[in-house]
Amino acid sequence: MSQTQSDAQRLFNIFPGSDLAFGRTTVGDNTNAKGKTDSKSWLIHRPVTVDDFQSHIEGSEGIGLPPINSENKVRWGAIDVDVYQGIDLKKLQTQITENTLPLVLCRSKSGGPHIFLFVREWIDAAVMISMMQSFAGFLGFGDSEIFPKQAKLLRNEGSQDFGSWINLPYFGGTVNMRYAHDEQGAAITTIMEFEAFVKSRQIMPNEMPDLIAPKGKESDSVLPDGPPCLNRILAKPVTENRNEILSNLCVYAKKRWPDEWETKVVEVNNKFDPPLPKREVDNLVKSYKKTDYRYKCSREPLCRHCDASACKKAKYGIEGSEDEKMPDSRSLTMIATDPPIWYLSINIGVDDSARISLTTEELQTPRLYQRRCMEELQVMPPIPKGPEWQERITSLMKNCTVVEIPKGMSPTDQFIEVLKQFLESRSEEPVIEDILRGMPFLGDEGWSFRMSDVTQFLQNQRFTLLKYREYAEILRGLGATSKRRHIGTQFISVFTMPPIKEDI
Question: Which of 34, 217, 296, 479 has its CA 20 to 30 A from that of 438?
Fold first, then answer.
């Protein structure tokens, strides 16, 4: 076995993940306005192999891997910081080292940070998500993407839901710029050294509760039982974003001191350097007297220090407000089919995460989003206001993972192929009554069949990539129409459709 093959095996062992699929990524030569390198990604519908890691190390095709497996377990998690310029990785590593965090910092393909946590045993994905959210908030990256993005894969989507993937380090082996940093911030240039470093940082699951983000580094006495983000911000001198911070402080103060919250807000403002002008504070207090606002978690600077899981457990955190009963949208994935399929990962409780599939129209429309939550999660969130929903989805779109599907591999393409098989099952001497026996009929009008027979055929073929409601949409796109007609002595609903073009 060569050294390169040995390195491939090492990476394979370091990153156990999805047993269903993995991502392929090709890297372009251009960067966007944010500094992110252009790339194209697509899904491979099989488990990753050592040979795939070999190609990764050789620099021919990069691997992106979902941490979550089919049992909703993980051995590692990651923070993908969506900032590619202006971050000093050595300074970040110093922060990790000084706080004795068991994290492994890697340079991404665009030069930004990928921060990994490795555990020695398989744990629930939900536990890893909570942990990584805490670390992200502590490091000032609370608005970054967390992997795994899903606590549970969608079972009713069959093999379509594989989880979201993150691109792995050491693409191109030791000659590329995607490498890990050691405790001093120096590059770890060999995969053998990387393996040893990861093993030295791995933790046991029972150690995780004590690591939830270095609570001792902030003073909980600043805002007892308050949001972690505000405690982290107010533990240091505040010179920026004072109006935004004071607005959120009003929310906390009204929760904790309902009879004297105005005085408490003024006291905190006087500690700012410099304080906000009295007129601004008076206007802010006047506004909050009229309306009970909620924390502005998605805005600066709170979003950078967000620890949603811990905040929901805090007595005066986000949990308990009527407005906060709406599921918290965490990430968005688009499967580039025609039409596209959207996966929205959301938190529906302190420790509960879920994932729902949406059409483009459902993603656009708050009321339709509410309906999908009711159908898939048995949760009825309040209908968000249009501007609020637009702001939320716009934010998610900035970090949306786009999964390219090769021609012929999309759920729609595969549905059409199975449909063709169904149509080929017609009798050798067709008569219209064949429809009553569960077979298609080809006549002057084209194909005629019952939808129930198509559905049964799909089930027999174990086709689970789409939902029933999507079948009719595809059929209409193929020119199918539905009508009631007499066949024999029966009056039934029948789909009629022209022959399928060969180039489809």
Answer: 479
